[in-house]
Amino acid sequence: DNIVRKLLRRHPHVFPDGVLERPGNGRHASEQEIKARWEEIKAEERAGKAQTGILDDIPQSLPALTRAQKLQKRAATIGFDWPSVDGVLEKLTEERAELEEVLHSNDREAQAEELGDLLFVAVNLARHLGFDAETVLRDSNRKFERRFREMEQLSAKHLREQCPATLESLWEEAKRRLKSAD
């Protein structure tokens, strides 16, 4: 019953009268209207749960990439966002420089913090470009895996027995061979 009520409440564009049995009025809401109404509904639900912060209901248990994307998307709903991808790219450059600066220290905590900031901005870049960060990383993982397996096939010896220069050469050859698959 709770699931059905939630479904009806969150999808007024599908169930405009809030019931399952009755067909809609024939009017189709735009994607923008659907998203705006969704945010209104979610805000009402948050208010009903006595949540005070905009980010309060984003589950801590989500995978880090997915949670970062949800945090950024939610902040963007109130205008806390870059107006274009250019700002995100500038921030990415800034965070990279900050990471590079702490890499020369022995401060592992600062290194981890700056690396985390860099990853967070990379997720923001994915969001600005209209990609799901989790999906694009999974795709990159698959591409790396295909290339690495190709390296293993190309090598006359076990990869552990190869020098770094040979490994790099095998990597470039694997990339070339799999270019159409990637």
Question: What's this model, at a glance?
Answer:
By secondary structure, the chain is mostly helical. It has seven helices and no strands.
Sequence-ordered SSE layout with sheet pairings:
Elements: H1 2-10, H2 31-48, H3 64-76, H4 85-103, H5 108-128, H6 133-154, H7 164-178
Which features characterize this protein?
Helix Hairpins
SSE topology string: HHHHHHH
Helix content: 55-70%
Mean pLDDT: 89
CATH homologous superfamily heading of the largest domain:
MazG-like
3D shape: elongated
CATH class of the largest domain: Mainly Alpha
What does this structure look like?
It is built from seven helices and no strands. It folds into three domains: 1-57; 62-131, MazG-like (Helix Hairpins, Orthogonal Bundle); 138-178, no CATH class. With 182 residues, it is mainly alpha-helical. The chain has helices spanning 2-10, 31-48, 64-76, 85-103, 108-128, 133-154, 164-178. Helix content is 64%, strand content 0%. Helix 3 packs across helix 5 (108-128).
